[in-house]
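Tip: read the tokens left to right.
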């Protein structure tokens, strides 16, 4: 009698399915309008027919869409879902799942730049980033979880997208939202010609924390020319040295062939080649020529050769030993650095300020404008 009742219930279910949609749940909800059968549960799943590989292939004329669980298919014979499509059984590898989305990190804005950050997702092969919600055209970031975007408009809200991908596919995107700063504050990052520069407030002045590295590299045997192209030297003609220590420039090139003290030169808009008195103001604020150099030099010997005497970098200026170029030869990398001022001493020479590994002092002298020296930009 129990068996007969069971089959009657089954027949009723299938009969009702011929005329109406069916919902199986615990809360009495109606089925979704698009579904003939709508099963809802937060504690149980749907168990499809289970069979071996041989049993599955023994099915006669399987229709497209037929689904079973093959108990000895898949990785290491552990089993896999199988779907019959276009005359072939396809397996869903149970060890391969599309990744879940990552989450947004803390972004770092400045007036014209945003450093976008997102969190590492375990098991991710890599990430893609885009300005639009389009995975196909997204930039492959590899395993990096940060992207610096420059050339933005101050005080503007931006939305960006990041996907996680692995060998199986890719996730839905996480949306990154951040506004650029509305105006410049010393300490913000300055984007210029594809590179980023940190800034530091020292007294009433705002300085770049890095030497300027802009322009096209030329070899030591060439002169920098007034040709509408910013040209730079890199120590030992190696671009990697420019990446660390900045470019080296002849005075006229740094000034962009304008003989006016305080001119913009090769600095970005709103910045200029420091005047003689502005260098003097910095040195005075840091205690005078006898000790200011120690406060301006990067501490330690990661870049400076021993002894790097008196170096504390307490000012945040972070002076590095970039060396210089004279008579087609490079000298003093790791032991000395020289910065141009925008004040000419005479038609052939200009004032220079220098730092040495041997002491905490600041050198002040003039030398030939044809020498290749470092440039630090100062806020107008």
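Filled-in amino acids:
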């Amino acid at each position: 009698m129990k068996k007969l009742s069971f089959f009657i219930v089954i027949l009723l279910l299938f009969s009702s399915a011929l005329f109406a949609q069916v919902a199986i749940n615990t809360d009495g909800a109606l089925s979704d309008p698009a579904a003939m059968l709508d099963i809802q549960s937060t504690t149980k799943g749907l168990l499809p027919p289970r069979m071996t590989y041989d049993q599955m292939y023994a099915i006669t004329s399987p229709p497209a869409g037929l689904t079973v669980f093959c108990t000895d298919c898949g990785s290491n014979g552990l089993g896999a879902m199988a779907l019959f499509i276009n005359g072939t059984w396809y397996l869903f590898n149970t060890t391969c799942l599309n990744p879940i989305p990552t989450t947004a990190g803390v972004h770092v804005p400045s007036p014209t730049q945003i450093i976008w950050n997102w969190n590492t997702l375990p098991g991710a092969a890599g990430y893609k980033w885009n300005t639009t919600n389009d995975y196909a055209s997204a930039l492959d970031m590899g395993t990096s979880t940060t992207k610096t975007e420059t050339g933005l408009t101050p005080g503007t809200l931006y939305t960006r997208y990041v996907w996680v991908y692995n060998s199986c596919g890719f996730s839905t995107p996480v949306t990154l939202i951040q506004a650029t700063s509305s105006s410049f504050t010393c300490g913000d990052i300055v984007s210029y010609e594809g590179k980023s520069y940190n800034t530091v407030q020292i007294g009433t002045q705002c300085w770049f924390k890095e030497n300027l590295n802009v322009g096209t590299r030329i070899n030591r045997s060439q002169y920098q020319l007034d040709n509408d192209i910013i040209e730079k030297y890199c120590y030992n003609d190696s671009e990697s040295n420019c990446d660390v220590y900045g470019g080296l420039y002849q005075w006229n090139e740094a000034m962009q062939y304008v003989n006016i003290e305080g001119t913009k030169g090769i600095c970005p808009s709103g910045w200029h080649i420091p005047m003689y008195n502005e260098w003097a103001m910095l040195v005075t604020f840091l205690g005078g020529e006898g000790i200011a150099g120690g406060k301006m030099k990067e501490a330690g010997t990661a870049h400076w050769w021993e002894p790097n005497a008196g170096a504390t970098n307490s000012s945040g200026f972070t002076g590095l030993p970039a060396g210089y170029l004279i008579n087609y030869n490079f000298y003093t990398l790791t032991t000395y650095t020289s910065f141009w001022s925008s004040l000419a001493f005479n038609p052939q020479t200009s004032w220079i300020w220098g730092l040495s590994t041997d002491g905490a002092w600041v050198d002040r002298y003039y030398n030939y404008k044809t020498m290749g020296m470092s440039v630090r930009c100062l806020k107008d």
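The chain has four domains: 1-46, 49-96, 108-179, 194-379. The chain has a mean pLDDT of 90.
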